[in-house]
């Protein structure tokens, strides 16, 4: 089973920055589904 993290919240709240840092720290691949 593959672990998946999903980060949700209002625009401008830093979700992308948080996702980028977590992917670097945890060694995960990052998939940004935002437009």
Explain what you see.
With 35 residues, the chain is mainly α. The protein has one domain. Helices cover 34% and strands 0% of the residues. The chain is built from one helix and no strands. The longest helix has 12 residues. It is globular, with a radius of gyration of 10 Å. The model has no long low-confidence stretch (mean pLDDT 93).
What fraction of the residues are assigned to beta strands by DSSP?
under 5%
For the record, the count of structural domains works out to 1
Helix content: 25-40%
Tally of contiguous helical segments:
1
Q: Write down the secondary-structure element order.
A: H
Q: Gap between N and C termini, in Å?
A: 28 Å
**Which radius of gyration do the C-alpha atoms yield?**
10 Å
Indicate the mean pLDDT.
93
Quaternary structure:
single chain
Total strands: the figure is: 0
Structural class from helices and strands? mainly alpha
Shape: globular
Which runs of at least 5 residues are low in confidence (pLDDT < 50)?
none
Largest sheet: none
């Amino acid at each position: 089973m593959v672990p998946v993290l999903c980060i949700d919240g209002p625009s401008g709240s830093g979700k992308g920055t948080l996702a980028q840092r977590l992917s670097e720290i945890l060694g995960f691949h990052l998939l940004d589904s935002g437009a």
